[in-house]
């Protein structure tokens, strides 16, 4: 076992849970990066990481994740470090969860529960809270036995803490029948959310404005980029994982008077739990409905390419891999070296260097988005009679009007429109 102590701060803050992180080293070099990410997740959830433990083995032990001997060592470490919480860098099966809780005599979480806890903290709208609650309930149902024992071990402390909180639910050790009814209720409410979102999407499509979605690894700078493109600070931006859960859409000016709608979406992460993908399906559909994706990559992060790949896997899982995509290499001002950025450019197609915080490269990004969104438009000149001026609204909604000149009998209009719009005005076209 390779163990590295990590003291998170000089003194334990009042009410902060002391956590030990546990992971498996599969000998493929991914353990260190994955454990570093787990540390960031634990800190985001509000824990103080006091130790990290990794064990070299090909696969987790079926009964206790790290095996009985190592589990006994971990039990002594929990007592020595006065730890409140042990977090496993993987998904514990119901059997593993029960056995580990019994052996360690403290609160135990796995990676999925930790992520769901962070989501519970960051859910602000009713939609976000419903989705988090459904994911938590679905994950808790087969693990009620272990969760009941864990609640016994946290009882009497006056606080529940990480992994126990959740929007709309104060008692987690519930009977299976009650929990199943709750899951059904949540699914019904989320179905209503999906229907409402579909109505909203249809409304946006009727507006004629094309759409782009910002996607990428969590904390890659998507919200900062949306604010920069929109010229506002309306979207919450903090240096935390999963800061954005609820999609935010803004109207963005591109070049030559063109406009589009840009949506900021929930961030992805390596091995994003299936419960999260399922529960957030209504939100993630914003990705599949977009005309263009802007995949934001944090080039200042040491494992930037791996984060790009992990986000790409989620995009593919959603069925959005065929949507035209621009890869925005963000935070170039903070990159460790020019060589690293150049290497990413050599491995990823259709990239652009930007700094959302400093504003670098944003004009070029707008041009690239515009080129993709309006690639199928054709330029035409029309003579529109005054009794058919309602067509001007159609041209503005579905295309881009660049010039209007009023003559005695008609209006000379130059516009860029698609084939569908052309079918409505073909008899008025004088060229094109």
Can you describe what's shown?
By secondary structure, this protein is of the alpha/beta class. The chain folds into three domains: 1-200, GTPase HflX, N-terminal domain (Rossmann fold, 3-Layer(aba) Sandwich), CATH 3.40.50.11060; 207-373, P-loop containing nucleotide triphosphate hydrolases (Rossmann fold, 3-Layer(aba) Sandwich), CATH 3.40.50.300; 378-431. 43% of the residues lie in helices and 21% in strands. It has 15 helices and 15 strands. The protein has helices at 31-45, 68-81, 94-104, 111-122, 126-140, 144-154, 176-206, 222-230, 274-279, 281-288, 304-317, 338-347, 362-373, 390-398, 419-425, and strands at residues 2-5, 18-25, 48-56, 85-88, 107-110, 211-216, 248-253, 259-264, 292-298, 325-330, 351-353, 378-385, 400-406, 410-417, 429-431. The strands form three sheets. Strands 7-8-6-9-10-11 form a six-stranded mixed beta sheet, with helices on both faces. A five-stranded mixed beta sheet has the order 1-3-2-4-5, with helices on both faces. The protein has a four-stranded antiparallel beta sheet with strand order 13-14-12-15. Helix 1 packs parallel to helix 4 (111-122). 41% of the residues are buried. The model is unreliable at 1-14 (pLDDT under 50).
């Amino acid at each position: 076992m390779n163990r590295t102590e990590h003291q998170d701060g000089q003194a334990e803050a009042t009410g902060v849970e002391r956590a030990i992180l546990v992971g498996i080293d599969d000998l493929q070099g991914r353990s260190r990066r994955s454990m570093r990410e787990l540390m960031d997740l634990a800190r985001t959830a509000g824990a103080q990481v006091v130790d990290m433990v990794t064990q070299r083995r090909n696969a987790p032990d079926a009964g206790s994740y790290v095996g009985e001997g190592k589990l006994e060592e971990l039990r002594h470490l929990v007592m020595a470090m006065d730890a409140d919480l042990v977090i496993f860098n993987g998904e514990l099966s119901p059997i593993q969860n029960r056995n580990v809780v019994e052996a360690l005599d403290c609160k135990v979480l796995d990676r999925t529960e930790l992520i769901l806890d962070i989501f519970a903290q960051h859910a602000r709208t009713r939609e976000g809270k419903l989705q988090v609650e459904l994911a938590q309930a679905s994950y808790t149902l087969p693990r009620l036995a272990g969760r009941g024992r864990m609640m016994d071990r946290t009882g009497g402390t006056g606080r529940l803490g990480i992994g126990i909180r959740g929007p709309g639910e104060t008692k987690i050790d519930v009977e299976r029948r009650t929990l199943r009814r709750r899951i059904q209720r949540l699914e019904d409410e989320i179905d209503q959310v999906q229907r409402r979102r579909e109505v909203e999407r249809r409304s946006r499509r009727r507006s004629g404005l094309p759409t782009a979605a910002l996607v990428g690894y969590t904390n890659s700078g998507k919200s900062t980029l949306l604010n920069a493109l929109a010229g506002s600070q309306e979207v919450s931006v903090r240096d935390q994982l999963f800061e954005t859960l609820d999609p935010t859409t803004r109207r963005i000016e591109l070049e030559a008077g063109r406009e589009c709608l840009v949506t900021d979406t929930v961030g992805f992460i390596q091995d994003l739990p299936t419960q999260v993908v399922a529960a957030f399906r209504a939100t993630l559909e914003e990705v599949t409905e977009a005309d263009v994706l802007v995949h934001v990559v944090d080039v200042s992060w040491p494992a930037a390419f791996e984060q790009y790949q992990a986000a790409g896997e989620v995009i593919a899982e959603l069925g959005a891999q065929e949507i035209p995509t621009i890869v925005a290499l963000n935070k170039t001002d903070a990159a460790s070296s020019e060589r690293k950025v150049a290497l990413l450019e050599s491995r990823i197609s259709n990239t652009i260097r930007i700094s959302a915080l400093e504003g670098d490269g944003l004009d070029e990004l707008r041009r690239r988005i515009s080129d993709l969104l309006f690639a199928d438009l054709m330029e035409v000149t029309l003579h529109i009679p005054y009794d058919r001026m309602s067509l001007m609204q159609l041209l503005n909604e579905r295309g881009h009007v660049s010039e209007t000149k009023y003559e005695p009998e008609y209006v000379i209009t130059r516009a860029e429109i698609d084939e569908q719009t052309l079918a409505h005005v073909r008899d008025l076209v004088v060229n094109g």
